[in-house]
Write a structure and sequence with these properties.
Tetrahydropterin Synthase, Chain A, elongated, single chain, alpha+beta, three-stranded antiparallel β-sheet
C-alpha cells in the first residue's frame, strides 16, 4: 500500500512539473493540442496538458530592428544609386505571425527593398537627398499596411544612406566647391564694399571735424602743413618696410602748397549784373 501511494505521488509530481510553463516578460508562446492551435501563453506562470499540448513557438513581442543591406535603385532620370534602410517593428499577434507567413523577417526585408526601389524610381536624382523624410513616410505607410495581415506593426523606417556612383559624387563635389567659391567671392566683395563705404564716411567726418576746428584759427596753414608732413612720414615708413619697394622722398611743402591755396581761396562766385550782357534784339 505505501508503495502505491508513493507511485501515485511521483505521478502527480511529474504531471505537475511537466504541465508548468513559465513565460518571461516580453515573450509569448503558442500552444498546439494534437496538432491544432489551442491558445497563446502570456508572461508568467502557465499550465499545459502534458502529452496533448505542445509549445510550437516562443518568441519576443518587443520592438525589433531589421537592418536592410545596401540595394541598387535607379532614379527617374536614370541615375544608379545604392540605398539602405533600417526598420523598427514588433509583433502584435503572435499567432498570425506564425501561421500567416513562413519567415516574417525575410518577408519584411523583401517588402522594404521593393518599396524602396519603387519610391526612388519616382524621384529625380537631386531630389532624393532632400526627400528623405518623404521617402521614410511612404515606406512606413506602405509597410504598415502590407504587414497588418501578418500581425506585425512597423513602427518606424529610416533611410540610412544614399550612395551615388563615383563619377556623380565627383561632379557633385566640384559643383559644391564652385558654389562655395562663388559665395565666398560675393561675400568678400560685399565686405570690401561695406568697408570702403565706412572708410569714406569716416574720412568725411574727419574732414568735417577738422574744418570746424580750423574755422576760427589764424594758423590754419601751419597746422595743415604739420598734419600732411606727419602723414607723409608715416607713408614713407610703411613703404620702407617692404623688401621690394622703392621709396622716393619728396618735399612735403610742395604737396601742401596746392591744398593750402585751395582752402584759402574765396570760392564765392560774384553775382553777375544783367547789364554785363548785351541785350538781344527781337
Amino acid at each position: 500500500m505505501p508503495s502505491i501511494i508513493g507511485i501515485l505521488a511521483l505521478i502527480i509530481i511529474g504531471y505537475t512539473v511537466g504541465s508548468v510553463r513559465i513565460i518571461n516578460q516580453g515573450t509569448e508562446a503558442l500552444v498546439e493540442r494534437l496538432g491544432r492551435y489551442n491558445r497563446k501563453l502570456k508572461p508568467g506562470l502557465n499550465f499545459i496538458v502534458p502529452v496533448l499540448d505542445y509549445i510550437v513557438l516562443r518568441d519576443s513581442v518587443r520592438e525589433q530592428i531589421l537592418d536592410v543591406a545596401k540595394q541598387g535603385a535607379i532614379t527617374k532620370d536614370n541615375v544608379s544609386l545604392e540605398v539602405d534602410a533600417v526598420v523598427y517593428w514588433r509583433i502584435l499577434e503572435l499567432e498570425l505571425t506564425y501561421y500567416a507567413i513562413e519567415n516574417v523577417e525575410q518577408a519584411i526585408e523583401e517588402l522594404v527593398i521593393t518599396t524602396l526601389r519603387s519610391e526612388i524610381g519616382k524621384m529625380e536624382f537631386e531630389k532624393t537627398f532632400s526627400s528623405r523624410d518623404e521617402i521614410n513616410r511612404q515606406l512606413l505607410s506602405q509597410l504598415d499596411e502590407a504587414t497588418e495581415p501578418w500581425g506585425v506593426k512597423v513602427t518606424r523606417v529610416e533611410l540610412q544612406e544614399i550612395i551615388p556612383p563615383e563619377e556623380v559624387r565627383r561632379s557633385m563635389q566640384l559643383q559644391q566647391a564652385a558654389e562655395l567659391k562663388s559665395r565666398a567671392m560675393v561675400l568678400e566683395a560685399q565686405g570690401e564694399q561695406e568697408a570702403a563705404i565706412k572708410r569714406a564716411e569716416a574720412t568725411v567726418q574727419s574732414i568735417q571735424m577738422l574744418s570746424k576746428a580750423l574755422a576760427d584759427r589764424s594758423d590754419t596753414s601751419e597746422i595743415l602743413n604739420y598734419l600732411l608732413a606727419q602723414r607723409y612720414v608715416d607713408a614713407n615708413q610703411k613703404l620702407s618696410e617692404s623688401e621690394n619697394s622703392k621709396v622716393v622722398f619728396m618735399d612735403p611743402k610742395m604737396l601742401t602748397e596746392g591744398l593750402v591755396e585751395i582752402m584759402n581761396t574765396d570760392t564765392v562766385t560774384p553775382k553777375r549784373d544783367s547789364d554785363d550782357f548785351p541785350s538781344r534784339r527781337r
